[in-house]
Amino acid sequence: xxxxxxxxxxxxxxxxxxxxxxxxxxxxxxxxxxxxxxxxxxxxxxxxxxxxxxxxxxxxxxxxxxxxxxxxxxxxxxxxxxxxxxxxxxxxxxxxxxxxxxxxxxxxxxxxxxxxxxxxxxxxxxxxxxxxxxxxxxxxxxxxxxxxxxxxxxxxxxxxxxxxxxxxxxxxxxxxxxxxxxxxxxxxxxxxxxxxxxxxxxxxxxxxxxxxxx
Length: 214
Ligand code: PRP
Ligand code: URA
Fold this sequence. Notes:
two-stranded antiparallel sheet; alpha/beta
């Protein structure tokens, strides 16, 4: 589903995604279930987001005869979680696309300024030819997503998509302003940010809920 006021955003409204998202939001959901649900939602999102991947013809032998099939064309898809919370989306997608490569971008949001602070960057080579999926459950002010995509592009990435579980209007607009060529996919577009930059209604601090820290 797309929204005319957010042309870069696609909302993934599959009933299973929405059902699991409600469980994820619930403050009673413990870390173990939160981790499982985040992975499952990411997997369902990836299934939808990959529906336009280009295919190429291949010839194979079944046990009975020679035949033609298709395979996903091009270099291996590359998942790039933004540390830490993006890690919670990797495993689910990797179950669907086991051959995916994984890069990592280390960023945390300064609690006072809400500005992203970077501390790690490592992605596979062949950047120009790869399709990148940047992963982070939360798109709040958009500072982290904008910085992560900027770093990827600086390294040579040309085909980038951003997948999050919950987006705030501010974050989607920040991505549109900084990276109009990067589609944003989310399970939900929430109402607003609070004075601490948390998404409302949101799901709280995704990293803390995933890893049991606080
Ligand atoms: C959270 C979240 C995003 C960022 C979103 O990370 O996982 O990376 O905040 O906020 P923004 O859109 O305003 O930049 P956090 O800084 O809490 O780090 P963590 O994942 O290590 O907990
Ligand atoms: N980061 C989070 O983990 N949650 C929010 O609501 C906003 C940023």
